[in-house]
């Protein structure tokens, strides 16, 4: 069951379930918090809940920087791929977090790589 509390002008929803970590999120209105909590509890009941906290904290830049030393050296076109990836890191799209990356923003990636 979800609990709600007002913290510094925002409403915090907290869902506690046996066998799961506590899930919390803050909202401006109580109605938004209640709606999110109901939907999250339904997802937990259906075993389809997926946490997005890591995606919110990870930018495309972080993934590219990890990809370059781990995957690129195993490929045949190391030099060309490194040049492309370094150019991509200079673009504003790399500052977007993975949760906010949408298909309209992916059009840029298609133009860049193909």
Characterize the structure shown:
The structure is a single chain. It is built from five helices and three strands, in the order βββααααα. Strands 1-2-3 form a three-stranded antiparallel β-sheet, with helices on one face. The termini are far apart. A hairpin with a 2-residue loop joins β1 (2-7) and β2 (10-15). The protein has helices at 30-45, 53-57, 60-70, 78-89, 103-113; strands spanning 2-7, 10-15, 23-27. The radius of gyration is 20 Å and the shape is elongated. By secondary structure, it is an alpha+beta fold. It folds into two domains: 2-51; 55-113, no CATH class. The mean pLDDT is 85.
Feature tags:
2 domains, 15% strand, 114 residues, alpha+beta, elongated, 5 helices, single chain
